[in-house]
Design goal:
Layout: H1 32-38, E1 44-47, H2 54-61, E2 65-70, H3 73-82, H4 84-88, E3 92-96, E4 112-118, H5 123-127, H6 153-159, H7 162-171, H8 178-189, H9 197-208, H10 214-228, H11 231-244, E5 246-256, H12 259-272, E6 293-295, H13 305-310, E7 318-324
Parallel strand pairs: 1-2, 1-4, 2-3, 4-5
Antiparallel strand pairs: 5-7, 6-7
Helix pairs in contact: 1-2, 7-8, 8-9, 11-12
Length: 325
């Protein structure tokens, strides 16, 4: 399973020979050229995951008008400062909100010629120790992407029952020993509440053994992050709504970093591209027999070797695109 790496590369390691195009101190976007190509000719684009604003800036430079949404106030502030010239000339609108809850955002029933989701977390969220996404020693167990998250990671680990913890580690972290890990967490929190990354790392090591390392920590920390931010279920709810917000021939582009996210996107795009969605044994078609659109990418697009070398966090990115009828 691809996992976001919550520990930045060591200084000088995997350094890019040249600055990455569209990168900022906040985040280095992935597959930018592919995104711009797929959304070429789209006059109005919705960027549902603004982050550091790299994809948005590239789309603006290509001539698009962009409405950009992010649930993280830090992202809105950083991108607003970086891209203020586009805000001033009316080509960029910034909205604090969650792409999975656009009915709460001030965009009513607007339609868009292109929509982009770049899932996962930004470099800034990983690198800012106070945000609690990292397993570096002493980091707080927070992991909230924005103020709309119902609880932080510490609260989840200290209050969720054993069954819920096991489900999260199994479903979101592909952990074979999910039940044992959940039981270890419940046992440990009975004497001392979980508060920092060290507490969760200690529980993981107790169950997975002394040979467990950064790959295991990244995978299981990511599972907790996905749970408290409602990431997979939010994506599943959002996909049909985003499809409905596309103009005719509009394109939806999604970049996923987690196998569960990519699976949801792949299945949704295939289903929408199928002419008949009736059950296989149903004798007569009752669904209307018309596909809602077509696949633009037959298989996931991945970052090339040069991009991965320059930005190792691009290695798990999977891009898929779909066009509305």
């Amino acid at each position: 399973m691809p996992a976001d790496d919550p520990t930045p590369p060591a200084p000088g390691a995997n350094a890019a020979p040249e600055p990455l195009p569209w990168a900022s101190a906040y985040h280095a976007p992935v597959l930018v050229d592919e995104v711009v190509r797929l959304l070429a000719g789209a006059p109005h684009v919705l960027d549902g995951t603004l982050g550091g604003g790299g994809h948005t800036e590239a789309l603006l430079a290509a001539g698009a008008r962009v409405t950009a949404v992010d649930r993280d106030p830090d992202a809105i502030a950083a991108a607003g400062e970086r891209l203020q010239r586009y805000v001033r000339d009316g080509r960029l609108r910034l909205i604090a909100g969650n792409y999975a809850q656009l009915d709460r955002a001030p965009i009513a029933d607007e339609r868009f010629d292109g929509i982009l989701l770049d899932l996962g977390i930004s470099s800034h969220q990983i690198d800012a120790a106070a945000r609690g996404f990292s397993f570096r020693a002493g980091a707080p167990l927070d992991m909230r992407m924005g103020p709309d998250a119902a609880q932080d990671a510490a609260t989840f680990l200290n209050t969720a029952d054993e069954g819920e913890l096991a489900w999260v580690f199994r479903e979101y972290g592909d952990e074979r020993r999910a039940i044992r890990l959940a039981r270890e967490i419940v046992k440990r929190r009975a004497t001392r509440a979980f508060a920092t990354s060290d507490d969760l790392v200690g529980a993981i090591r107790a169950v997975l053994g002394p040979r467990s390392g950064p790959g295991d920590f990244a995978r299981l920390f990511q599972a907790v992050r996905i749970a408290i931010n409602d990431e997979l279920r939010g994506l599943e709810r959002a996909l049909p709504d985003l499809r409905g917000r596309l103009s005719p021939n509009g394109v939806l582009v999604v970049i996923a970093y987690h196998s569960g996210e990519d699976r949801l996107v792949k299945h949704a795009f295939r289903e929408w591209s199928t002419a008949c969605t009736c059950p296989p044994k149903q004798p007569v078609c009752t669904c209307g027999g018309r596909a809602l659109g077509e696949l633009v990418t037959r298989r996931a697009v991945t970052a090339g070797d040069a991009e991965v070398q320059a930005n190792p966090r691009a290695r798990s990115a999977r891009l898929r695109a779909w066009r509305a009828a």
